[in-house]
Structure formats: C-alpha cells, structure tokens
Amino acid sequence: MPYQEHFETIAGCKVRIMRGGSGEKLLFLHGARGASAWLPFMEALSQRFDLIVPEHPGFGGSETPDWLDNIGDLAYFYLDLIDALKLQRVNLAGVSLGGWIASEIAVRNDSALKTLTLICAAGIHVKGQPKGDIFMWSREEFIRNIFHEPRFAEAMLAMAPTDDELFAEMKNRLATANLGWQPRLYNPDLHKWLHRITVPTLIVWGDDDKVIPPAYGTAFQQLIPGSRLKIMKNAGHTLQIEKADELAALMTSFIETH
C-alpha cells in the first residue's frame, strides 16, 4: 500500500512524517538509527492500520529545535503531536529509543492511547545487566551487534552508504548521544512511574539482544501493571527487520484483541 511523506510543524519544529494504510491509527516511534525508509515491517502493518511514522526532532529529515535537551522534551513533543493530529485511541509503539520515548509519554498521559507496544525498549536500568555501549562501537560493530542472524548484518554492510545517508547517520548518532549519553540510555526516575500506565501493554524482546538484554523486558513487564511479555527466539535487537512478519503479526493480533 503506498505511503505519503509530508512535514508537520509541532512546537515550532518541522518534522518529517511517513504515513500509509487505513484503519485504526498506529503511531510508531523509531530507534536510534532513525526512520529514513518505509520498511517491509511498516508495509505489513499498513495493510491493517493507518500507520504514522515520524522522524523525531533532531533526527534525519526533521529539524533540530533549540528546546531539545532530554527525553522528556520528546515525550511532551509527542503529546503535542497527538493533539495536533487529533489522534484519539491511538495505538502507540516504539522500538529501542522509540520505546523509551513511548514509555515516557505513557507515564505522563495515556488518556489518548488505546494500546502500548514496547519493543526492545531503552529507558530503565537493571542492576547486573549491562547494556551494549552503542556509543563506543564502530559502525561495523554496531551493525553486527543489532542482529542475531549474521546475514542481516552482512547484507547491510554490503550496501555502501551515500554521502546523504552518512550525514543522516551522524546526525542520528549525535541526537541519540544528546538524549542518552549519561546516564547511558535510561532515565533514573522512569522505573518509579511505569505503574501509571493503564492501557494494555505488549512488551517484545529478542532472546539474543546484545544492545539491551532480555532481562530488561522482564523488568518492564514487572513494572507495568497487567502487561504481557513476548520473547522472540533467535532474534536480536532489530526485530522490525529480523522478525518483520512475526512482529507485525504479533502487534496486529494484540491491537485487534483490545
């Protein structure tokens, strides 16, 4: 199903948005690598949903606003975006950094949400369970460590990035560092407030996630009342690529039963 690309100005920041499909509204928040392309995973979801994929302020084709200092700023930005796009009973999903943002949105105000899906989400700290340090990895190490199956990394490394793609990668890494350098990819206070989430919540993790270990999925499940945890076998951190069809089917089933 074809998607449309357009720009919206929210809180004084011009952001790039991809949108496609019809049905219930599903707002998907990307991870640290950005959302430059309409992935097969997105195409699968757009067969059942009105899928909305913004690029966060500071990332890719979106502007970098002066007010962007921390993850809380992005949470309030997306609450403004939900109001501006008149999204009611919207299904919210986020992967990795996007899952962290989704959690921060939901603890502040989940009244416009129907469901929440967190995929290999950052945002909390689990003692004795160190995360991979994405800021210290080379580009090749990063790509190899986000997958379980080496063939996905080999395919990505075989594609020589253009200058524009390299610029976008650097912009995304800078924005991620601005949000998650210290402490590394978590908010020390978030775990205290996850009990405020009242909407049905699905947590999905890969059993071989080298960026954020599966123990974090268990911790999120214990902190969010009534939430459900699904661990995918033979899967790494980038489920939306490595397990695209399985993840889209899981999300569709979860959303359609609530």
TrEMBL record:
Xref: Pfam families: Abhydrolase_1
InterPro entries in UniProt = AB_hydrolase_1, AB_hydrolase_fold, AB_hydrolase_sf
The record's GO molecular-function terms, alphabetically, read: hydrolase activity
List, alphabetically, the SUPFAM superfamilies matched: alpha/beta-Hydrolases (SSF53474)
Entry keywords, A to Z: Hydrolase
Q: Which domain of life is it from?
A: Bacteria
A GO cellular-component term linked to this record: membrane
* Hydrolase among keywords: yes
Q: What is this protein called?
A: Alpha/beta hydrolase
Question: Which organism does this record belong to?
Answer: Pseudorhodoplanes sinuspersici
